DNA sequence: GAAGTAAAATTGGTTAACCAGATTGGTTTG
DNA sequence: CAAACCAATCTGGTTAACCAATTTTACTTC
């Protein structure tokens, strides 16, 4: 373990403690939805940490919709109720960097759906973007170069064509971790790259033909190697 | 539009411009993966914005795995390659607060899967947690009280039982927005609350019996009202 | 001339001071 | 006595100064 990770873990630990203390404070003071939290200054003093730490935690809980900061006014408890708030904080505290298997599992789930939706909703512009990414992938592979990036861009283009903003966001979140782990575990295979070209075209054609079932099936075929990998590490 | 939103939009606009400028800088200087970005100070000076703004953007791009900050050393371009980097930044710039339909669509997708996985992987502890949330829901409904929170906690308990960390994270991300929109559009119905109790028990029993198909089917039934809503607003 | 070394400059991270706007409590005024 | 108003205070947000670790640079030494 290098220093970087250590520092980050230490910082994480501090943040987790602040989250616990904020939760306890809300419960102890019986703060209802919409009630105001003590000021950042008093919280940092009470918890014995810097105001920056408190601000970071508040931003995090704001991201998960549990708190809401109003400038020059205060930080307020979201109106999701005490029970839900405690439950969600419990889960947030348990959150950890997800394992590779969970990432792949989720990716496959998302992509089978985006392929299906793309077949229903794709525009001409979407088709052009997908075509461009496949051709770029083709060029790289034929030149014997690494083409992980271009592969990724094709899948992002499909997600874009699905017209579902939430799924695009989720794809963006998991993509970098997928890439990192692919390189780490050497999931990709050189000779798979050539077969992948045709598979990309097959997915493209199904989406172009507005055939959702076929698009999903072709995406499934494209993931077959990944499936195998997923079940082997089980 | 209130002042809050306005300020937030202005800030968003500044951040988007900084992202664009950083992308252009990487392309112009032909920065390869692993290369060092100019320091935060010089970037803020060059772009004519505060160092805080730059730091926020860097943190955001770090979240999406495109950059990586090393303390006392510099900020580095992630090793995902220039092509992928440009593509992902393009998508990040297009990101917007997702519409309600996209949220519900994604939620249904996720939950059908978590129900199925939960039936395969649930522990005894998971069952106890789910049981507790259903009973809490029951009590509230029988007393005529609002039980949106308890409903949510049951679904989170199912997600926890799925054993997939990524899906739990995603559920946590979309949940608060779902709740807000439910209340906004009055999706929930009082007399639906009673039928939901039995539906929760049905899902629970299928998961307890380790029957993935039935668990998924029961979850689908539970979402039937939501399905209808989803297609009505189309 | 190359290798080692120490000091100076540069870096992201942290802390503290400052700001503008919102809130609050007391005072004034009708 | 109530309502209106104003100033003191408190708020999250922003800016600037500071810190410790790292990297670079220049000099010494063999």
From TrEMBL, chains A, B:
Annotated signal sequence range: none
Keywords assigned: Coiled coil, DNA-binding, Transcription, Transcription regulation
Highest taxon listed in the record's lineage: Bacteria
Coiled-coil intervals, chain numbering: 110-147
HTH gntR-type domain location: 12-80
UniProt xrefs under PANTHER family: TRANSCRIPTIONAL REGULATOR, GNTR FAMILY (PTHR43537), UXU OPERON TRANSCRIPTIONAL REGULATOR (PTHR43537:SF5)
Name of the protein in question: FadR/GntR family transcriptional regulator
Organism: Robiginitalea aurantiaca
Lineage per the UniProt record: Bacteria, Pseudomonadati, Bacteroidota, Flavobacteriia, Flavobacteriales
């Amino acid at each position: 373990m290098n220093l970087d990770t250590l520092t980050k873990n230490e910082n994480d630990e501090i943040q987790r403690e602040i989250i616990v203390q904020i939760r306890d404070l809300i419960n102890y003071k019986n703060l209802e939805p919409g009630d105001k939290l003590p000021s950042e200054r008093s919280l940092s003093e009470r918890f014995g940490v810097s105001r920056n730490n408190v601000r970071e935690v508040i931003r995090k809980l704001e991201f998960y919709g549990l708190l809401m900061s109003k400038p020059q006014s205060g930080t307020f408890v979201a109106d999701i109720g005490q029970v839900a708030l405690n439950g969600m904080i419990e889960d947030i505290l348990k959150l950890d960097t997800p394992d590779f298997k969970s990432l792949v599992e989720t990716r496959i789930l998302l992509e089978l759906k985006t392929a299906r939706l793309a077949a229903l909703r794709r525009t001409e512009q979407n088709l052009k973007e997908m075509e461009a990414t496949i051709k770029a992938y083709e060029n790289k592979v034929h030149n014997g170069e690494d083409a992980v990036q271009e592969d990724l861009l094709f899948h992002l283009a499909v997600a874009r064509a699905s017209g579902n903003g939430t799924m695009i966001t989720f794809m963006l979140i998991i993509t970098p971790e997928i890439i990192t782990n692919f390189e780490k575990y050497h999931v990709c295979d050189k000779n798979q790259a050539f077969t992948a070209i045709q598979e990309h075209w097959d997915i493209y054609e199904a989406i172009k033909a507005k055939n959702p079932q076929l698009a999903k099936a072709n995406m499934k075929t494209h993931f077959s190697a990944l499936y195998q990998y997923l079940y082997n590490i089980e």
